[in-house]
Design brief:
It comes from bioreactor metagenome. The protein is of the alpha/beta class. The protein folds into two domains: about 140 residues, NAD(P)-binding Rossmann-like Domain (Rossmann fold), CATH 3.40.50; about 160 residues, 2-Layer Sandwich (Dihydrodipicolinate Reductase, domain 2). The chain has eleven helices and 14 strands. It has an eight-stranded mixed β-sheet with strand order 8-9-10-7-11-12-13-14. A hairpin with a 2-residue loop joins β11 and β12. The chain starts with a strand and ends with a helix. The mean pLDDT is about 90.
Length: about 325
């Protein structure tokens, strides 16, 4: 199955490395505005390089049908690249979020529906075993009905984006869109469509595009979620994330400080139990995610991340932003 990757930042290179381990996928074209970088990486991976998606789709035809385009561009460019790929006849995977603006997100969804193309948004947390586990706990009501989901995700001020585009809220959507949408999507995945929204944001005088945000979401089943995220931790602070799921008859916790990778702790009926899931999925969640994407295209089975769910995540962020005003 032939594909093209557009965008050679951190995520584009991460995806490219993952595809190299998936036998049924073959990257035949790489697109990046930096021609020297595109040429260098293309030579390493034995594929063609281009500085535009249109050019790549044209020059890679001789390799056979282009089945998919993987979009790893900064968020404001998702719409244009996705529509170009779908107009060509390719299916698409887009690094989260679907888009920053609602108009762009809805346009991508409508184009996919119009052309019958398949689009998956790369919400990678859904491909990590600890999040998959709590999804099954909620679905099965293992500990009774869910009451509360709390999640947190924090990092130092981002310095890894090209030209620091993550510091520009008009491009990144701010910390709540770029960072917290991971956990907002998980909360919606667990509980459905939120009905109540509240958010508080703290900024920094020297980092206008970054902030620390605390949110509350209320759901129709009377469950609540509290999501906290921050891009304001000092230099050298490790990337930290975690969650707590509280149900009627038990609770589950996981975090990147105290737990081993792919493990959680369950508390119920006076007991605490360590649950390991390390062998259930590949250690690399990006590989797991892209394996799923290729398999779903090949077998014509549903994506784990439904396009409407990805749109809901963007809508939820905008509703939280509106609650701040």
């Amino acid at each position: 199955m032939n594909g093209i990757i557009i965008g050679l930042g951190y995520m584009g290179k991460t995806h490219l490395q993952a595809y190299a381990s998936i036998p049924k996928s073959r990257i035949v074209g790489i697109v990046d505005a930096n021609k020297a970088q595109a040429d260098l990486v293309a030579k390493e991976y034995g594929c063609k390089s281009s500085t535009s998606l249109d050019s790549a789709l044209s020059t890679c035809k001789e390799e056979g049908t282009i089945s998919f385009v993987d979009i790893c561009l900064p968020s404001p460019f998702h719409r244009e690249a996705a529509i170009t790929a779908m107009d060509y006849g390719a299916d698409v995977i887009i690094e989260k979020p679907l888009a920053v603006s609602l108009d762009d997100a809805i346009a991508i969804v409508k184009k996919a529906e119009q052309l019958g193309r398949r689009v998956m948004i790369a919400h990678v947390c859904r491909f990590m075993p600890q999040y998959d586990y709590i999804k099954n706990v909620v679905k099965s009501e293992k500990f009774g009905k869910p009451l509360f989901f709390g999640a947190w995700r924090q990092s130092e001020v981002p310095g890894w984006s090209k030209d620091n585009w993550l510091h520009d809220r008009s491009k990144s959507g701010g910390t709540i869109m770029d960072l917290m949408i991971h956990d907002i999507d998980i909360a919606n995945w667990l509980f459905g469509s939120p009905k109540g929204f509240a958010a508080t944001e703290v900024g920094h005088p020297n980092h206008s595009g970054c902030s620390h945000v605390v949110t509350t979401l209320k759901y129709a089943n009377n469950a609540y979620a509290s999501i906290e995220g921050g891009h304001l931790m000092p230099d050298g602070y490790p990337f930290l994330s975690g969650f707590r799921l509280v149900c009627e008859q038990g609770a589950i916790e996981w975090n990147t400080v105290h737990n081993k990778p792919g493990s959680i702790v369950e508390y119920s009926k006076g007991n605490a139990g360590f649950v390991s899931m390390e062998n259930e999925t590949p250690a690399n969640p990006y590989l797991n995610e892209l394996n799923h994407f290729i398999h779903a295209l090949e077998t014509k089975t549903p994506f784990k991340v439904d396009l409407q769910e990805a749109l809901l995540a963007v809508e939820t962020v905008h509703n939280l932003l509106a609650s701040m005003s």
